[in-house]
Amino acid sequence: MIWEVAFVIFLLSLTVLVYLLIPVVVRFRETLGRLNKTLDILNEDLPDIMKNVRNVSERVDGVMKTAEKTVDNISQLEYTITKEIKEPLQNIAQIIGTLIQVINRLFYRSKKK
């Protein structure tokens, strides 16, 4: 008799548990359906997305190569300006400064006499 009562209580508990789990299982099934739809859409769009990512990556690589060439050209231009323009101008400025000093000495000497 005790076994029968325990079995009835077990069956009632199991029935209540199944009754409570049915909405959870239904929601889980709906969620899986939405997830499958999302994955299908993603599988359709992913190749286009990857193509765009590759395209952007190639463009960025091109921009970086152009930037590197530009920096190299600017560096070469700076070197050229320094060697071919700045240094000769400094030399000319020194020569002119020396000439001015010589002229001042000559001019002031001739005035003092």
Descriptive report:
This protein has one helix at residues 2-112. The protein is an all-alpha fold and 113 residues long. The longest helix has 111 residues, at 2-112. The mean pLDDT is 89. The chain has one domain (1-81). The protein is built from one helix and no strands.
Number of domains: 1
**In percent, how much strand structure appears in the residues?**
under 5%
What would the average pLDDT be, to the nearest integer? 89
What is the 3D shape?
rod-shaped
Give me the secondary-structure category. Answer: mainly alpha
Please provide the ordered H/E string of secondary-structure elements.
Answer: H
- Give Rg in angstroms: 45 Å
Biggest sheet overview: none
The tally of strands reads 0
Beginning-to-end CA distance, first to last residue: 148 Å
pLDDT < 50 runs, ≥5 residues: none
